[in-house]
Design goal:
Largest sheet: 5 strands, antiparallel
Low-confidence stretches: 380-389, 432-463, 518-528
CATH class of the largest domain: Alpha Beta
Mean pLDDT: 80
Structural class: alpha+beta
Number of helices: 18
Strand order of the largest sheet: 5-6-10-8-9
Shape: globular
Number of strands: 18
Strand content: 15-25%
Distance between the termini: 26 Å
Radius of gyration: 24 Å
CATH topology of the largest domain: Vanillyl-alcohol Oxidase, Chain A, domain 3
Length: about 525
C-alpha cells in the first residue's frame, strides 16, 4: 500500500486531511517506536482494560487475540504493526466514507470498517495488513422525531423515533432519549454502537417487551460499494433495507445513520438471584437444570435475565447468580411470578435460598441501566460461543438438561445464560428483517467448541446469535446457523449490490466465495 502507484496523498486531499497513519495502540510502551513515552505508556496500560480507550483509538479493538496481541502496552512483548491497517479514513460524514470506498474499489485495495472495536468475531481486524480502514467514530448526529415520514412515503408513521449516526453509542443515545422520557431497544454495554447492534439483530433488555433492535428500524442511510449514498427503507432500496437489519455489518455497504423507533421509558423492577451448592455436586446440577427449565415460563411472564453459571467459584463452591427484571411491573407482581419457583425450591431443597436481596424498583430505564452496566472486561483475549435455546429445548426432562449443562459449562470462566426473548420478539412486526482470555488459544478453541456442541445437541435446529459467536468453532455451514433460510436471499443481495466484493469480512455474507492465499484474499475462481 505504500507503493508510489497508490496516490494516497490524493485521497487525503479529497477528505480534507482526515487520512490517518496511526501507530499501534501499545506503541508508547516500546522504546523502538517513535511515540515511546513513559508517561503515555502508563496511561495506556491503565486504560487498556476499559472499552472507551479502544473505542477512541482509530485501529485498536477490545479483544487483543484478534490483533494477535501484536502490540501490547508492555516492553516485555514485541510491537508490530502487521496486525493493524496501514491507513485510516477518519470519516465524519457519508461523503468522506464514499471517498474512501471509491479509492479502495478503484485501486482494488482491501477495505475494512471500524466503529467501536467491540466485536467478538474480529470482523474488523482479522487479516488487516495492507488494508485501508474506514473509522466511523466521528459520524455523529442525533435528531428526535414526534412522528416520522420515511423518504418516498406519502404519510407519516405514527411513532416517536430518533435518527442517529451509526457509530453513536448506547450511553449517548440512552442519556439523550432519557431526557425526553424515551428509550430505544439497544444494548447493555456503554460503548456498543447502534450500528453494530442492529446489523447483528440486536438483543436488548427491552426485547421481551418490544422485540429486537433490528425490528425497530424505519430507515437507514448507507454508502454502497459503488460509492452511492442511498436512503433505504420499506419504500425504496428495500432489499438493502431488509439485508442490513440483521444481515451483518459491512457486508452490503457502510451504514452511516439509522432511524429507529423510540418508546416511553418505564419503571423497572429487579430481583437479584443467588444459588450456591457444593462444587460440581449433583445437587448443584439439579438446581441449575430446574432454574433454566423455568426460562420459558419467565419469558412468557415478561421477565428477562442476565445470569452467570459459575461451575467453580472456588475449590468448594459452585454458584448461579444474575439479575431478573421486568418493565412496568410492580414488586408484588414480580414476586408473584417467582412464587411457584420459590415454592418448588423450598420443597425440594429446604435449605436453599433463591432471592439474594430484596427486590428493587427503579423509576425508569436509565437508573436501572446505570446500576448494572460495566465498562470494563476488555483488553484481553476473549472468545465467546453461543447457542439460541428455545422453549422446546428447555422443556427436555431435567436429567437431559443436567447432562447438557455438565458438558456445556466449563470450570472457568462462568457460562452466560440470558433470557432475552418473550412476547416482544415473537409478536414484533418489523418492516422486514433478516435476523432470524487467559488460556492457550488452541486449547481454548477446542474447549469452547466442546461446550457449544453440547448446547447444539440439545437443540440441533437452533441458531447462533451473530454478535456473540466465535470464529474458531463455527459450524461448517455457519451461514445457516446465523441466518437460516434467509441466507440465499442475503447472498443474492450481496451479489447485486457488491459484485466486486469491495466489502469483505469473515464471518459475513458471501465470505465463503473467497479464501486467503499468498497473503491476500483470492476469489475461488482465481485459484482454480
Amino acid at each position: 500500500m505504500q507503493s508510489p502507484r497508490f496516490p494516497i496523498r490524493n485521497l487525503n486531499f479529497t477528505i480534507s486531511g482526515r487520512l490517518l497513519k496511526p501507530e499501534p495502540p501499545g506503541a508508547p510502551c516500546h522504546p523502538e517506536q517513535p511515540s515511546f513515552n513513559n508517561a503515555t505508556c502508563a496511561y495506556v496500560a491503565a486504560a487498556w482494560g476499559n472499552s472507551t480507550f479502544h473505542d477512541q483509538d482509530p485501529i485498536s479493538v477490545d479483544y487483543g487475540n484478534w490483533s494477535n496481541d501484536s502490540c501490547l502496552p508492555s516492553p516485555v512483548y514485541p510491537c508490530s504493526a502487521r496486525s493493524y491497517p496501514v491507513y485510516v479514513v477518519n470519516a465524519s460524514s457519508a461523503l468522506e466514507v464514499k471517498h474512501g470506498v471509491d479509492f479502495a474499489r478503484d485501486k482494488n485495495i482491501r477495505l475494512i470498517v471500524k466503529s467501536t472495536g467491540h466485536d467478538y468475531l474480529g470482523r474488523y481486524i482479522s487479516t488487516p495488513h495492507q488494508t485501508l480502514s474506514t473509522w466511523t467514530h466521528y459520524i455523529r448526529g442525533l435528531s428526535f422525531h414526534a412522528g416520522f415520514t420515511p423518504k418516498g412515503y406519502g404519510y407519516q408513521i405514527d411513532t416517536t423515533a430518533v435518527t442517529a449516526g451509526a457509530s453513536l453509542q448506547m450511553a449517548e443515545i440512552y442519556n439523550e432519549a432519557g431526557m425526553r422520557n424515551q428509550t430505544i431497544v439497544g444494548g447493555m454495554d456503554l460503548t456498543v454502537s447502534l450500528g453494530g447492534i442492529i446489523t447483528g439483530g440486536g438483543h436488548s433488555p427491552l426485547s421481551a417487551t418490544y422485540g429486537l433492535g433490528a425490528d425497530q428500524v424505519l430507515e437507514v442511510e448507507i454508502v454502497t460499494a459503488g460509492g452511492e449514498i442511498l436512503t433505504a427503507n420499506e419504500c425504496q432500496n428495500s432489499d438493502l433495507f431488509w439485508a442490513v437489519r440483521g444481515g451483518g455489518g459491512h457486508s452490503f455497504g457502510i451504514v452511516t445513520s439509522f432511524t429507529v423507533k423510540t418508546f416511553p421509558t418505564a419503571p423497572v423492577t429487579q430481583l437479584n438471584i443467588l444459588i450456591g451448592a457444593a462444587f460440581d455436586s449433583e445437587a448443584y446440577w439439579n438446581r441449575m437444570a430446574y432454574v433454566l427449565s423455568q426460562s420459558p415460563y419467565l419469558s412468557d411472564s415478561g421477565v428477562s435475565a442476565y445470569t452467570y453459571i459459575a461451575r467453580q467459584v472456588n475449590a468448594t463452591t459452585s454458584s448461579f447468580e444474575g439479575i431478573f427484571f421486568a418493565f412496568n411491573t410492580s414488586i408484588t407482581a414480580l414476586l408473584e411470578v417467582f412464587a411457584p419457583i420459590q415454592q418448588y425450591i423450598n420443597f425440594t431443597w429446604p435449605s436453599q435460598t433463591l432471592v439474594e436481596a430484596a427486590p428493587t424498583q427503579f423509576p425508569d430505564f436509565i437508573p436501572w441501566w446505570l446500576s448494572n452496566v460495566d465498562p470494563t472486561g476488555v483488553g484481553k483475549n476473549d472468545l465467546l460461543g453461543s447457542r439460541l435455546l428455545d422453549g422446546q429445548a428447555l422443556s427436555h426432562p431435567l436429567p437431559v438438561l443436567e447432562n447438557t449443562l455438565r458438558n456445556a459449562v466449563p470450570n472457568s470462566p462462568p457460562a452466560i445464560a440470558h433470557i432475552i426473548s418473550g412476547k416482544g420478539v415473537w409478536n414484533a412486526k418489523p418492516r422486514g428483517g433478516a435476523y432470524v482470555h487467559f488460556a492457550e488459544l488452541a486449547t481454548e478453541n477446542a474447549l469452547r467448541a466442546q461446550y457449544t456442541e453440547a448446547l447444539r445437541k440439545v437443540n440441533p435446529n437452533s441458531g447462533c446469535y451473530l454478535n456473540e459467536a466465535c470464529l474458531h468453532f463455527l459450524p461448517p455451514k455457519y451461514q445457516y446457523a446465523f441466518w437460516g433460510t434467509n441466507y440465499p436471499r442475503l447472498l443474492q443481495i450481496k451479489h447485486k449490490v457488491d459484485p466486486l466484493n469491495v466489502f469483505w469480512c469473515h464471518p459475513c455474507v458471501g465470505d465463503e466465495e473467497w479464501a486467503e492465499g499468498g497473503g491476500a484474499y483470492v476469489g475461488y475462481d482465481s485459484m482454480r
